[in-house]
Amino acid sequence: MIKILLRYTNLLVLTLLVVVIFSFALAYLFPGEPYTNLTGVIDEQAAAAHQNLSVTSAFWQYLGNIFAGDWGLSLMTGQSLADEIAITLPATLELSLYALAFALLVGLPIGFWAGLKPHKGIDYSVLGASAVMHSFPVFWLAMLLVLIFSLQFGWLPMSGRLNLLMDVPNVSGFIFVDIFLADNIDRSQAAWDAVKHLALPTFCVSIITMATIIRAVRRSTLEVMHKPFIIAAQSRGLSNAQIFFKHGFRNALLPILPILAMQVTTIITNVMIVESIFSWPGIGNWLLQAIYQQDYPAIRAGMLAVAGAVIVVTILIELFNRIIDPSREKFEDVTF
């Protein structure tokens, strides 16, 4: 166990170091002074002094600032980039988490159901539906849902995380935690309003991952239910339900877990696309505004934050999979 932890820790540190090096290089690739791109400060004397530093010295200085929480300033707002990322990144992670949870909640039972009814009407229907779900462009689906459920019927809000009339201070960045911590509001009403705001973007982001999970679970269930230990259980007279829940469920689920690590990147990417359509105050929408305004320090810092979050979550999921499934011997199976 200690060896596994050390190997994954080394992988995490080395990968994050590569990302930091790339973010540092962006400051020299963007237009303008590298010093300004690194700090967000326009100072000719400081820029001249920075030019006299060697690349190695400048990188170690940059690395020290990153660890100290000094990610620079935004050229447009003049605010600390670390503070702005601390506000926007939790909103993106929250939507990603809910989308993954919804995809699992719906995809797992449907995939198991199709796998237990192979080559029948329900199986073909599920396969066809999952193929259609996987082919939907996320941005097109988002606009279609806004048109139907927001503009046409008015059932769900089309933008934001919460009604503007509800005063919920941003404490943690996670809306339900902030609602719980807020005073002088109707928490149940605020929570219901947050759920309605989450409904459309969560469904849009989860649809592709849900289709992937359905197909993977179906395939895994088919393989497991034809294993010799399942046939032996059937010969002992056990019911299909007993066989599946006692012997088939866990074994069919294990191959699905590594897929979750690969889906992290897909989900976060789709969230960053959907944020601009639903005016979700996440880091994707924030980065899009930074690109429009040519705020190079914000682009650099945003890239570093998103890449770091994806790497950390992916490796943690892989580590969890490796711990609960010791049969995975090959360390090279780690996915990014």
UniProtKB/TrEMBL annotation:
PROSITE patterns: ABC_TM1. It comes from the Bacteria. The keyword Transmembrane helix applies. Keywords: Cell inner membrane, Cell membrane, Membrane, Transmembrane, Transmembrane helix, Transport. Coiled coil: none annotated. Pfam families: BPD_transp_1. InterPro entries: MetI-like, MetI-like_sf. The keyword Kinase does not apply. Residues 89-321 form the ABC transmembrane type-1 domain. Its main location: membrane. SUPFAM superfamilies: MetI-like (SSF161098). It is a multi-pass membrane protein. It is found in: Cell inner membrane; Cell membrane. The chain crosses the membrane at residues 12-30, 97-116, 137-156, 198-217, 252-278, 298-320. CDD domains: TM_PBP2 (cd06261). Belongs to the binding-protein-dependent transport system permease family. OppBC subfamily. This is ABC transporter permease. It comes from Alteromonas arenosi. The lineage of its organism: Bacteria, Pseudomonadati, Pseudomonadota, Gammaproteobacteria, Alteromonadales.
